[in-house]
Amino acid sequence: MAAENPQVDQIGKPVAPVKKLPEVDDDTLDLVKEFQDQLREGTVNVKNLVYIFTVLGMALCAVIAAMLAAGVITIGPALYIDFVVFAILIAVGPVGVMITMEQKRIAEIEKRLPDFLRDVAEAGRFGMTLSGAIVSSSKGEYGRLTPEIRRMASQISWGVSATEAMVLFAKRVDTPLVHRVTGLVIKAAAAGGNIADVLTMSSVDTKESQTLFEERKTTMSTYMMVIYIAFFVFLVTVLILNTTFLPRMEEVTKSSGLSDVDMANAPGAVSISAESIPKIRELYLYAALVHAVGDGILAGVITNGKVANGLKHSFIMVLAAWVVLRVISG
Predict the structure, then answer these.
(1) Which CA distances in Å does 85 have to 21, 61, 226, 236, 300?
(2) What is the distance between the alpha carbons of residues 315 and 321, in angstroms, rounded to a whole number?
(3) Where would a tag sit more exposed on the chain, N or C end, judged by fewer CB atoms within 10 A?
(4) pLDDT tens column, 116-145
(5) Are 151 and 145 in contact (CB under 8 A)?
(6) Which domain holds residue 169?
(7) Residue 95 and residue 314: Cα distance in Å, rounded?
């Protein structure tokens, strides 16, 4: 049987055959498409997926750390404490990013809510009903809130009552401020009060609440910077001890031939053996990790009173502590 002619390029040189990628079967494509549709429609809870992968990542790092500590396996220069740090980063990193993105979404939505309430109130003063005022105001631009407002207006145009459309709107947007405002408007509409006045007061109250929150955030940012400065001063101090003081003590111990080094000549002087110096470095890393997690949580509580908001700060500080005390100082 004659051999097949190899492929050649335009110059005449042989070209290696290109391997074909394996074809994806129809069942896999259907599963991917179904998952994408579920994400698009919101039926898949992304938060639960983040929590699941976080727990799995933490468990894997914990198992590897335990095996390294027991001497069952070795992974190059990696120590068990490295995987403990990785477990902490996995615990606080994805959840912190998710919480930050959720807070950003809520802030963008609630920022334009007073403008929408003011426009609905102004339309109501011209004699429009609540339904007509919502439909008329939906033609404006309200940032990230615009699609949900226009969806609410479309529901009203299809015959859904204004109160029911507002309930559905609050469930979709799902922020505390939107729930509070819609509940107030629905109760005012049921009681037969002046909806325009209620909307105006809600708009003013919402705007004032946002202004107070921004002022508090600006004020507390100074204290948060103090926490960061204190933490990094601690890291620099430990780095200096690790790179200058402890190595010098180790050299003196080896050159003198003594088993330990006296810190002073006075009675009750402290002595440090050369074998304990690596343990001292390890204790410094433990202290830095505890310092990082605690300071990060404190920064979050100072910012908006929520512990969860400090997870992103803990992630930054834990990563900085590991880089400085393990990667740089060894």
Answers:
(1) 38, 9, 24, 19, 20
(2) 10
(3) N
(4) 888 888 887 877 888 888 888 888 888 888
(5) no
(6) 107-211
(7) 11
Inside any domain, residue 12:
no
Q: What is the tens place of the pLDDT at every residue in 291-308?
A: 999 999 998 888 877 888
> In this predicted model, what pLDDT tens digit does every residue of 215-252 receive, in sequence order?
888 888 889 899 999 999 999 999 998 888 887 877 77
Q: Is 307 helix (H, G, I), strand (E, B) or coil?
A: coil
Number of domains in the chain: 1
Strands annotated E in the chain: 260-262, 271-273
Amino acid residing at 87: A
CB neighbour list of residue 64: distance below 8 Å, 6 or more residues apart: 73, 75, 80, 83
Query: Quick check: 289 and 89 in contact, CB under 8 A?
Result: no
Rounded Cα distance, 211 and 114, in Å: 12
CB 160 within 8 A of CB 148: no
Tokens linked to 143: 């940032």
DSSP string for residues in 35-58? HHHHHHHT-S-HHHHHHHHHHHHH
* Residue 141 belongs to a domain: yes
Q: Kindly state whether residue 192 falls inside one of the protein's structural domains.
A: yes
- Are 80 and 69 within 8 A, CB to CB? yes
pLDDT at 1: 45
CA distances from 202 to 113, 149, 197, 259 (A): 10, 17, 8, 75
